Amino acid sequence: MDAAEDTSRRQADGNQARPSREPTHPASTPHAERPQPSGPGTPPPPSRGERYRRQRKKQILRIFTWIAAAVMVVVLVLLGYIGVEYVNLDRGLNRSDAVKDAHGGAVREPTGDVNILLMGLDSRLDLRGKPLPKDIYDAMHTGNSTIGGMNTNVLMLLHLPGGGRPATVIQIPRDDFVDFPGCPRNKCDGKIKESYDVAFQARQEELQKISGISDEEKHRQARDAGRAQSIRTVEAFLGKSVVVDHFIEVTMVAFYEIAQVVQPVTVCLKQDTKDNYSGADFKAGKQQISAEQAMSFVRQRRDALGDTAFSDLDRERRQQAFMASLAHQLKQKDTFVNPSRLDGLIDVAKKNIAVSEGLSPLDLARQAKQLTDGKVTFYTLPVVEFFTDKYGSSANRVDVPRIQATVAELLSAGKNAPATSSTTPTPRPAVSVVNASGVSGAASTLSEALAAAGYPRGGVGNAPAIQVGTFVQHAPGEAGAAAELITVLGPDATPLESTELRPGTLRVTLGTNFRMPPALGGTGSARTTPTAPAPSSATPLPPSTVGTGAKDEDTSATTLTALSGGGIPCVK
User: Fold this and answer.
1) Where are the alpha helices (DSSP H) in 392-527?
2) Angle (nearest 5°) at CA 266 between 261 and 270
3) Distance (Å, rounded) from C-alpha 530 to C-alpha 59?
4) What is the residue extent of each domain of the chain?
5) Hey, which of 200-214, 241-255, 427-441, 517-531 has the most confident mean pLDDT?
6) What CATH number was assigned to the domain covering residues 430-536?
7) Composition bias, kind Basic and acidic residues: at what positions (predicted)?
8) Where are the alpha helices (DSSP H) in 107-244?
9) What is the pLDDT, as a whole number, of residue 171?
10) Considering the domain 1-10+58-416+541-572, what is its CATH architecture?
11) What SS3 state is found at 378?
């Protein structure tokens, strides 16, 4: 999220998200006054004076969606190299129980596979909620601690399969419009990047009413609430095939402290490209870029030389290409055999990175050897279309059933027995239905339809009052079962956690917005002949390979793209 947009959203008290995309007209700084970036292979001069810094400030304020991605790959590659020499990293990392909180206190039994949610925040506060030193703000040209928020502008699921099989990184577009399990702060949906911030704000407001708790502790608890909410939201969105085992959270200041170590980085572009908004100005082919040029490389999402299809998803593929190139380069350089450099990186990790309780750097180094060997594929999830959501913000419309089927397919690749072939499937939960729609017999009708679809019957009853929203309540730790039922009921239903329900049960409360879906015999389709989109929406999407440099690569927003690690990808 751009800094100015985030500030405006906070001034509105979070009630209505501002559009996350940049305006269609240029920024107010005249084009003639914009500093021109250096050539692709030439780092910029060390100093251009105060006027230059003022002109660049507005530009650099918008880099933060990629910073965490760059830092995370450094951290993951670092963990693959440290070995037993640097066990002090394990003792010094900031840890959190957010994964356990997200799962209602439950801990998944080891399966051999590990899922790690990588979260990149645009916060300008440290992990204790304190403003950074003034010289850091001045050096990064990022304003001060009042700018920025707690949005997860980078969300990636890292899947490390057992047996040394290649790793998978699934990048979730930050503007995907999804449901927020539990409706924190009475907000039940929004862009997926916002779920952390909404829960963070809700917990902060609760803690303000409690005395005797330090500001630092309040900030820590609020961040844990945001982390847990992001985990629940991602799991509900990606489906039952995904259970998050660990998380790694990085804030933007880590990049500033690492950038001088990793530059320059070699990247590759398929075509000449230029963008006055981001300052990108690159030629086709391989080239070395400085840390400052990298800011433009990974945040560009439009092209002034004729590529009108350039989008936010292309920017995410730029992030992936940068990560793959960086990982490849770090393996070639002496970064991890230079004691002073390595000590510096470890110090950055201790100060600016949070991880889940139980995540051991040494265990991860053994499990994540695929990353250091380049055996990883980056996938970008597709969208149906770009649209203006009900809060007036630019967002991505997504096909949740198809996303979930696609993710399940990606995570089962290479296994001898996919989860769907199990001879003892998990029994479906019993579903009780409460009628708050005002339509006589609606609860009984839905209960019968769900029974015909394979869901055991629960109770049927009427609510004391009519309500608008339709909710699917579930016991703690069973958000996946609710998400699966919602794929049957349709997008009008919202998941909601309830401590009153027993495990293995769900409760549907019908509101006035509910319409019986065609797949359950609703208006417009016979039960025996569901509409065409229903079966097709649950079909996994085939991936389209990108990063090879070929001109005919399909990088449209509706395409699932796959980019391989292990080298220097060439992207548009």
Assistant:
1) 400-412, 442-452, 479-489
2) 150
3) 51
4) 1-10+58-416+541-572, 430-536
5) 200-214
6) 3.30.70.2390
7) 1-12
8) 134-140, 195-207, 215-238
9) 94
10) 3-Layer(aba) Sandwich (3.40)
11) strand
